[in-house]
Design brief:
By secondary structure, the chain is mainly beta. A hairpin with a 5-residue loop joins strand 23 and strand 24. The protein is globular and about 60 Å long. The relative contact order is 0.16. It binds beta-D-glucopyranose (BGC). The site of beta-D-glucopyranose has 9 residues, from strand 25 and strand 26.
Length: about 375
């Protein structure tokens, strides 16, 4: 069944089989498979003038592929994922997906608003993770091509019903993906609600800048513009205090290879099984990147810009080779890294953390940009 939004889309975007017509457009789409409920999923391809190519599907708003040039101009895929819908349906660790309503953990799956306690799924070690059993990574997003001056752009929309996954309020979520001619992948999130609720949307792409995930990410040099991070307990829930990065393996204020300190006998590295923490972003000095990643062999350089107060740097500690991804690549430990821009974990239960409450009449609005270049 095609929705109204998709029908409108059909008028704008030529069918993929019509290759001559597609060539003129910056967005093409092809059939990508069918969900168990019969809903057809499509894959959209955005291309910029440099040949950079971003692919997105309706299911989970997942970025299935992102091809960017290395220092010799060779385009390769820098994100982990699967070759077909089946992979994404069969237990994906959030590869490429939009995460909501709450990216990251909420202690014991409970929070209280105006004296009322809400109970969410405890889907991770007795804690709530990434929106629950059927979070935004597992729902069907309507996709429409939208005009944007900067480059090809898609608007993804999803209406989450009142009490879906235990969260109050009907949430109208909108995520815009734009691929600019400056080789930027720009994401704009907005949401509105009809009841007081909590929201923390993010994007869960796993990057591997070697291209086609040739090896692990331990040689990737990461910079995080943060003086403090959020320490966690053994179930990865914040202790409530912030810690200075100075003098710890969490100091990424100067770009450092992930592998350089990840196995140190640091209490926080031990509980996280490596880096799996939120860094508190220092207020960006006028448009500077809050994070960057450099991969020396390919020369690929990724910079992150965001309006969010924190970034979860997860270095793929839980990948263990059992997930077989694109072209039969069994993604082993630390084969990808995530830079999830968001609010701090467990904010609904931590009065000292910046608020994640959204009231009726307000619009949640955040932006994040992943910019690719080489050096
Ligand atoms: C979390 C990890 C979790 C992973 C799931 C990350 O955002 O920080 O703890 O295992 O998502 O793939």
């Amino acid at each position: 069944m095609m929705s109204q939004a998709c029908k409108k889309n059909d008028e704008k975007i030529p069918a993929a089989a019509d290759t001559t017509a597609v060539a003129a457009s910056a967005v093409a789409k092809v059939a990508y498979g069918t969900l168990p409920d019969g809903q057809a999923v499509e894959e959209y391809t955005l291309k910029n003038k440099n040949g950079v190519e971003l692919k997105v599907i309706n299911y989970g708003g997942i970025v299935t592929s992102l091809k960017v040039p290395d220092k010799n101009g060779v385009l390769e895929d820098v994100v982990l994922g699967f070759d077909s819908l089946k992979g994404y349906l069969g237990g994906s660790p959030y590869f490429g997906a939009i995460v909501g309503r709450y990216g990251n953990r909420i202690a014991k799956g409970k929070f209280t608003l105006d004296g009322q306690t809400y109970t969410l799924a405890q889907n991770n070690n007795g804690q709530h993770l990434h929106g629950g059993l059927k979070g935004f990574d597992k729902v069907y997003w309507h996709i429409a091509e939208v005009p944007a001056a900067e480059g090809p752009s898609l608007k993804l929309t999803y209406t989450s019903k009142d009490m879906e996954e235990g969260y109050p309020g009907t949430l109208q979520a909108e995520v815009t993906y734009t691929l600019t001619d400056n080789n930027e992948f720009k994401i704009a999130y907005t949401a509105t609600t009809d009841k007081k609720t909590v929201v923390n949307l993010t994007q869960h792409t796993y990057f591997n800048l070697t291209g086609n995930a040739k090896r692990d990410i331990l040689d990737h040099q990461v910079m995080l513009h943060a003086d403090k991070f959020v320490p966690v307990d053994k179930v990865l829930i914040p202790t409530g205090k912030l810690k200075d990065v100075a003098g710890t393996p969490f100091d990424f204020r100067t770009a450092t290879a992930v592998g350089q300190r990840v196995n140190e006998k640091d209490e926080q590295l031990i509980v996280g099984g490596g880096y799996d923490h939120a860094w508190v972003l220092s207020p960006a000095d006028s448009g500077k990147a809050v994070a960057s990643v450099y991969e020396p062999t390919s020369g690929r350089f990724l910079e992150v810009y965001t309006t969010e107060p924190a970034i979860q740097f997860y270095c793929g500690n839980f990948l263990d080779g059992t997930v077989v991804g694109k072209q039969g690549n069994a993604y082993a430990k630390r084969f990808g890294l995530c830079l999830e821009t968001e609010h701090y974990p467990d904010s609904p239960n931590q009065p000292s953390f910046p608020s994640v409450v959204l009231n009726p009449g307000e619009t949640y609005s955040t932006q994040t940009t992943y910019k690719f270049s080489t050096k």
